[in-house]
Amino acid sequence: MTVRKLALADASFERSPGQEGDVWTGNVVDQRHGGPITIGYGRYGPGASLDETMAVDDVMIVLEGQLSVTTDAGTVTAGPGEFVYMPKGAKVTIRAHDAGAVTAYVTYPHWQEAAAD
Amino acid sequence: MTVRKLALADASFERSPGQEGDVWTGNVVDQRHGGPITIGYGRYGPGASLDETMAVDDVMIVLEGQLSVTTDAGTVTAGPGEFVYMPKGAKVTIRAHDAGAVTAYVTYPHWQEAAAD
Questions:
Q1: For residue B71, how many C-alpha atoms fall within 13 Å in the half-sphere facing its CB?
Q2: Which of A71, A85, A95, A105 to mutate to test the interface with B (most CBs of B within 10 A)?
């Protein structure tokens, strides 16, 4: 695989698996490309939320809006340019604030393969 | 390791190893934290550039400014919210445009350990 530029326009969004909320994900690099990591973009509608037990290590970068991530240990809130690191095994609730949010994510290994296990 | 929020203010910047240019990196999560990936921020001065053969898979997200990444296959240019994916083994020249750039990066595995091999 060669060096690639990736932008939001490259993402084909699908509803995040296993939930009905206004949360959408679009991989731009994943298991189809032969490397070890998945890269993608996420979209959250106003107030949309997602409960997840992390099957992989997931780094979420907030590009627009704000998100809060809640675990047993408390809640962190991130805005543009900030990361939330969600290690494998963490049980999280991700909730967008009133303006919704656009995120990017990097996972190791590929989350779609881990979710299918 | 638990869920963590990470921001630019958490990064302690050091000159990028092996070069003398105005390019600075600051890990915020790495081999010290027990997970598989490194997360950090980068700063490039106006026009600053860096030649590198990638020791790890490296995803660079542009937060401010613009960067061009040149390989034998050509040049890609990325601005805020865009990624450049640089797979292990790629030979790259990263060059900031006139306004410099702020980036974030995620690497698998840990780049500091790979660079020390």
A1: 18
A2: A85
